[in-house]
Amino acid sequence: MFGYSPLAIIIILLLILVIFGAGKLPEIGSSLGKGIKNFKRAFEGKDEIELKSKKGEEENRDS
User: How far is CA 53 from the centre of its chain?
Assistant: First the structure.
């Protein structure tokens, strides 16, 4: 994978885990996914960008 050995990838992932901590990883992944989705939409010509706050999502779930 891109010239990296599996051991190097595991070490990089462990460093990321140590730097950001286990609690932040889901948030980082979610933000990254939303960013990629918004980039694809913009690339396809759709001008809608998904911007939701956590507070807004929680209110929608409770309703």
Answer: 14
Taking the C-alpha atoms of residue 5 and residue 44, their distance in angstroms, rounded to an integer, is 35
Write down the domain spans for the chain: 6-62
Q: What is the mean predicted confidence (pLDDT) over 27-52?
A: 81
Query: Residues near 50 by Cβ (< 8 Å), separated by ≥ 6?
Result: 34, 37, 38, 41
pLDDT in tens, 1-19: 468 898 999 999 899 889 9
CA dist 58 and 41 (Å) reads: 25
d(CA 47, CA 39): 10
